[in-house]
Predict the 3D structure of the following.
Amino acid sequence: MTTPLLTISGIRAVYNHSVVALSDVSVTIGRGSIVALLGANGAGKTTTLHATANLLPAERGRIAAGKITFDGQDVLATSPGTLVRSGLVSVLEGRHCFKSLSVEENLITGAAGRGSRRREASADLERVYDLFPRLKAKRRISSGLTSGGEQQMTAIGRALMARPRLLVLDEPSMGLAPLVIEEIFKTLSRLNKEDGLTIFLAEQNAAIALRFAHRATVIENGHSVLEDTAAALRARPDIKSFYLGKADLHAAAEARNPTPSPVPA
Amino acid sequence: MTGFDFTFFLEVLVGGLLSGVMYSLVAIGFVLIYKTSGVLNFAQGAMLLFAALTFVSLVERGVPFALALAITFLVMVLLGITIERTVLRPLVNKPPITLFMATLGLSYIIEGAAQLIWGTQVHGLDLGIDDTPLEISGILISKFDLFAAAVAATMVAVLTVLFRWTRVGLAFRAVADDQFAALAVGLRLPRIWATVWTAAGLIALVAGLLWGARLGVQFSLSLVVLKALPVLVLGGFDSILGAIVGGLLIGASEKLAEVYLGDVFGGGIESWFAYAIALAFLLIRPAGLFGQKLVERA
Ligand SMILES: Nc1ncnc2c1ncn2[C@@H]1O[C@H](COP(=O)(O)OP(=O)(O)OP(=O)(O)O)[C@@H](O)[C@H]1O
Ligand SMILES: [Mg+2]
């Protein structure tokens, strides 16, 4: 196999000069693969993904040791914007749509981040609408008024508008109904097969992640502890009991991220 | 209240609205920066003074009008970008009160610098528009007010178009909505901040000249920002539309109050009426007329 698209080797991450969020995490992502990052609450999934996009400095975090390489580039010495323009694009945990912008405007910000020409942007827009037909119907609506699933699709579509080579997703299944999760993962899988898009995704929902990923890395308390093919991991008894045994994984995700009570007008 | 003079009422109203447009302009300078960086830029007034003072001093030294305008604009852009780079960017992620204190300190530094460079005397500023009243369908309107309002309205319109219909504007609104997501999407925040500060510098320039021509270019000019505060309270700190409507409302209501309630309160209402409205508004509708309605499903 050729050189991996992304290598994370032995990173240690510290927030506020005091909180050690990652002690020793390594992940390798081969070109054209789907790699899942599995772990419980607070294991360090989001921190790892933010490190991958060099977003930690914006949260007063820092990589104190280790190295991240994206296609030969030293990630930690490259600004998030430059990484986006060289094809490493993130979909953040909790979607982070621009709520007051319409769905279509959200998508266009992805093109603006890449610096696409207008013609490229409108072609990409058609592609996103083709992948997520629901977004086309809602294109003029403020994204803050769309459903959770539609917001996740908007966030993914926005990232796709930047023409990624590596798409990094943080818990795309969070808080969504099983049918919607299914639809989103099928689309990701289709992008992987049709366009050769490499995907790196963090999930608590190991069941769905291991169904669609080729390989996975498990992290616990800021350490990567296990790496194997998805099929091998699915068969392991410890993974089964820890991550797959619970029928209420989805309920756990809901409890972690409860729907906010209505804000009084 | 017999014999209500409707024409006179309209004159007062129009005069108030026209000066309101100028309040709107100053308030928009605040809103732009507040929306993109969450900073209530108290130095906006000092910037306005600095612009007016630089322009007047250049003209007094024989620099032609257009050239002086261009130079001042450049100076303002540089000033804005320098402030953003050297003061605000290092303070990113700090609590709002820290940022506010920083801009407060900054406003004194800018005023001090202006004083050091250009001296402390009051300058007259003549933009070449005479202040004779103009009669439009029976109502007398000051020509200068009309000119000032037209200039301010044009600025407001240009800014609105810029922010509504261009990519820079889209990026601006995205950053205003969610800075972290904007970073993750690859939007170039420094470029957006530079654009916003350029716009703020331009606004300071235009507002400085208009207000300077009316009040004379002197240090109290920086207090014009205090007039923008009630406008912001009324319109919402994060709404351009709010700044426009708020400016008009404050301008009109303070003039009307001065004329029609002046006798009751013994005059001088104009200097505090805006604050009274703002205070009432704070109690009734703290987010302002157009402030951040939560666009979100519960
Ligand atoms: N901005 C921050 N400042 C300080 N500590 C943080 C910050 N973000 C995360 N942490 C800490 O770092 C550790 C790892 O958090 P992280 O968000 O990466 O976990 P996660 O695996 O994504 O969890 P979850 O499944 O809940 O999203 C946690 O102990 C968390 O409290
Ligand atoms: Mg997380």
